[in-house]
């Protein structure tokens, strides 16, 4: 079965925060942030919700594919920053775009969320249950960031990316994936969302902001991702040299550079946009995918590795014949 990416779309939040803007309220510098992360600026919400950004990205992906929302059978939104507990983002997007026939649900695997959503979609398409899907990664992380913490406040941004895919009959699969989780290390990157509060029990009021052990997250990403990609390629008898592009979760330029180095592959095969948009968690990969497709870097016929990693800890990689 071939999971064909028919269209891509993305939407960044309207506000722009440069590193110099951050220095107005945080003890940091443009030089420090660029050197340690590669990030120059990031977009933050001026009131747009996760569902707003997801809807815009979805509409652009459908337009790119020349597809009709009425024909969509499955919508999955990957996110860890929805404003509303209920209804889920995917149902909001379904309503906003008029995809009345679709089943819609969310998936949260943090920065690996879009990858896991695409893996889930592939499995549905391969089973024959659905013939097409809209897969979205969307975040407004700025609301869960502690803007007084210079260890995290410099990293994240808000945006959404979407792909519209269709199943095409073909003997060989064009998509293969590996996905893993390591819950025992969950505390290195966490965010308490809601406190327990009922007539019998009240938990202590928590901070409800992202807390991170940056060094540990760095070690985890650089330690696991090269091996994960190598394992994926080896299981599927694919030579590293056959890969045209590696589209990685845009956490940090230093992480991506270290992964490329460990894989022994030149940075020209690792396009980045983290410089301009920061780390947008589950939106990171689909926004990069959209940019690469629109710029002509990503072309039909190429073999492309996608890889995500983040809170959970969750991680994985997939390879697609684009
Ligand atoms: N500006 C200036 N100085 C800063 C700073 C900032 N924004 N953040 C930390 N520092 C200071 C620290 O206080 C420390 O000072 P000290 O030596 O006087 O104590 C020094 O810089 C080194 O801090 P440290 O936390 O060891 O820096 P680091 O080299 O580990 O870089 C990160 C911090 C967050 C950039 C880095 O750990 C990282 O990129 N981790 C991965 C994070 C990530 O990608 N998370 C998302 C994954 S999905």
The gist of it:
By secondary structure, the protein is of the alpha+beta class. The chain is 31% helix and 26% strand.
Description:
The chain is α+β, with helices and mostly antiparallel strands. Strand 10 (197-198) and strand 11 (201-202) form a beta hairpin. It has a 5-stranded mixed β-sheet with strand order 1-7-6-4-5, with helices on both faces. The mean pLDDT is 97. It contains 9 helices and 15 strands. The two termini are 13 Å apart. It has helices spanning 19-22, 30-37, 50-65, 89-97, 113-127, 214-235, 253-263, 274-277, 284-295, and strands at 2-12, 15-18, 41-44, 74-78, 103-107, 132-139, 159-168, 175-181, 189-191, 197-198, 201-202, 210-212, 245-248, 303-310, 314-321. Coenzyme A (COA) binds at residues 28, 32-33, 36-37, 111, 150-151, 154-155, 212, 214-215, 217-218, 251-252, 255, 279, 310. Coenzyme A binds at residues 28, 32-33, 36-37, 111, 150-151, 154-155, 212, 214-215, 217-218, 251-252, 255, 279, 310.
What structural keywords apply?
alpha+beta; 31% helix; 322 residues; 4-stranded mixed sheet; 15 strands; 5-stranded mixed sheet
